[in-house]
Each structure stands twice: as C-alpha cells, then as structure tokens.
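Researcher: Good morning. I'm working through a list of sequences from a screen, and I'd like to move beyond sequence-only analysis. For each chain I'm collecting a predicted structure so we can compare shapes side by side. This is the next one on the list. No need for commentary yet; just the structure.
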Amino acid sequence: MWFKNLSLLRFTEPFSLTAEELEQRLQSGRFRPCGSLEPVSYGWCPPVGRNDDDAPLVHATNGCMMVCALKEEKILPASVVNEILAERLLEQEERKGSRLGKKERDALRDEVIHELLPRAFSHSRRNYAYIDPKGGWLVVDSASSKKSEELASWLRKCLDSLPVSPPASNERPAAVLTRWLSEGAAPSDIVLEDECELRSTGEDGGIVRCKRQDLSAPEIQNHLEAGKEVSKLAVTWSDRLGFVLDDALGIKRLKFLDLVQEQASEVEAADEVERFDVDFSIMSLELAALLPRLFELFGGESAPNK
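Model: Good morning. Structure tokens for this chain:
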C-alpha cells in the first residue's frame, strides 16, 4: 500500500474528527456495486482486508487516518455502441423517409446505452488517501488532480464540509528547480538524478524531456541559458525517498528507498492487517518529515486561502 504519487491538499481549518467519528460519517457514502442500469458507482471501502459490510472504513495509526474510495464503471466500447446505433438509425430513417434530427439521434443513443448496460463488463479501481490532522494534510495517492478532487468531493459530501485547498510555496517552484540545475545549487539533502523536463517560458515554447541523462552536461545547460525552465526534476531526498517533483509541487513516481524498506522489513507482522499497519505507520512518518522540508526548500508555505 505504499503510495506511488502524492496529490496534496492543505486543511485551512483544523481537522477535529476522531477516527471513530470519521468512521461514522463515512458510512453514509459506503460503496455499493453498480445497479444493472447504473454506469458508475463511487463510495468508501475498507482500506485493508475484504470489502465486507462490517469491515472498518478508517484505518488509524500514528494519529493519521487512512481511507479508500472504490469506483466501479461499466465498460461499453464505443465501437459496439456505434455499430448498434448505426443499425437503429438506418432502420428509423428508412421508416421515416428522412434523416433524424440531433435530439432524436441523441435519444436513440441513450436508448442503446440503456439496453447494453445490464450486459456490460465492469472495471473497478481503488484510490487511497490519508488525513494527517497534526500536519494539516489530506494526502491522496494519485497523479491525477481530477481523481484527487473526486475523492475530496466525496469526502466533503459525507462530512458536509471539507476546508482544504492546494498548497502553495512562497517561491515559484520552477525558478527554484531551475536554480538547482543551472547553478548546481541543490540543498545538501537533495540529490539530482538523471531525469528532467525543460519548458520554454513562452506560450508556444518547446519542451525537452531527458531520461538517463547527465543533467550537468553542456546540452542541458545550453537549454537553460536559452531561457528554458525546469518543470520536472527527478531527485532523491536524504537517501530515503526518490521521486519526480514538478513545478506545481506534485510528487510523481514516489519510491521508498532501501533505508525505509529495510526498516519496514525488520518489523514482523502476523497478518495482512498488521503488515498494513506497519507500512502505513512508517510511510506516514516519512512523509510527515518530507512535506515540511519540501516547502522549506521553496521559501516556505504561503498562507492558504480560507
């Protein structure tokens, strides 16, 4: 359950619910499978263990609370829908003797989808997140802002209120990342790896993506001297975490390195729940150390909008 990406949301007011209170509130949004005519279903499921009705929806450790959203979607290939729709359109237009209007065509498409839904296959995916009341974070394991906002919106619906907003730094991230690369001025706890993305600052500017590349090479410096800025940069922090950091302070392809993995493997766990608890505890502690340092590197965190 180690998170692979981090989408961060900052609480603008203290989160005061206990794990037990949060559990009670989430019950109203518990996941239920799609009905035969429902194209999608979204709700909370247990973060660990089987998706039983009596399994807890909140797993708490170290003062943090893990939750998990489950989304089920019916899969209707567009080619299948279009093939049947074309046949129906042809039949009705031949019967009518004229071309159907847009409203009639849309209504016929809806009818075809309605007929196919009960026979459609379904696909489901889980999206994990945890609340850190002490640090004031909602941390979502997602590289997609859309999926992150989907989870936050469902949480807001269950809690009636969720005062969060994306965090911002006092210094512009692209400028700081560019300085690290152009001046070789990365902080002592940051190691620059072999991957970056450079963007021109103009609206129609070019993009250069580098992988497995010596970032101190002259060709990289030439791009920087020509005015490009770093929009993504692969780094290692304190020999404990590796990730790609972007100019919106998104963290992608997060890896917990050997020092952390060895720490986790040293703790024996009797079952799946204990293993989850150990990993979540270590992960949340690592991220609780990383996040304040991350914003410190970018001039501190600016005051959130309330």
